Amino acid sequence: MFPLVLPCRFTLPLLIILVSGAVLAPAVTVTTIDYPGATFTAAAGINTAGQIVGTYLDSTKTAHGFLLNAGTYTSIEVPGAYTTMAYGINNSGQISGYFFGSDSRTHGFFLDGTQYTTLDFPGAQDTYAAGLNSGGEVVGAFVDASNTSHGINDNGTMGGSYEDKTGVTHSFSGPN
Questions:
Q1: Which of 11, 41, 108, 159 to pair with 59, CA 20 to 30 A apart?
Q2: Cβ–Cβ contacts within 10 Å for residue 138, how many?
Q3: pTM of the entire predicted model
């Protein structure tokens, strides 16, 4: 393979385009998100309305999900859960995440308004709901009985990524 060398007459216009693109880059606004009274806060998902979901730790280091909507924080607590973590929110305001239950297993959840739905992949030891689209289709992962992780969506198909022996990451999708 040989290096590509551009004649000098092409180099100057190319540099001008690159510089002008950097100068015209849009301004970025950074907003700190700290759940009131929390020792740690992590935002995980945002929709086009600017609603943000994530997880915070209280003073006992217990994880709770949260929704930040128009400057107001609301805690997300799956009933009966030890911990709750919110990861995705779609443009309808539906929320996905996972929780650690009293059965010492991790379960996915889907929250629509005030209605929680538990998501458990059939035969899985643990299920993690990580995101969802505007149709309410949830993606995530599950751990099977042999402690192997798999990516999933609500159609029961697998999708995700893996790292090969050379350290290259690949994406995949297909039937389970």
A1: 108
A2: 25
A3: 0.73
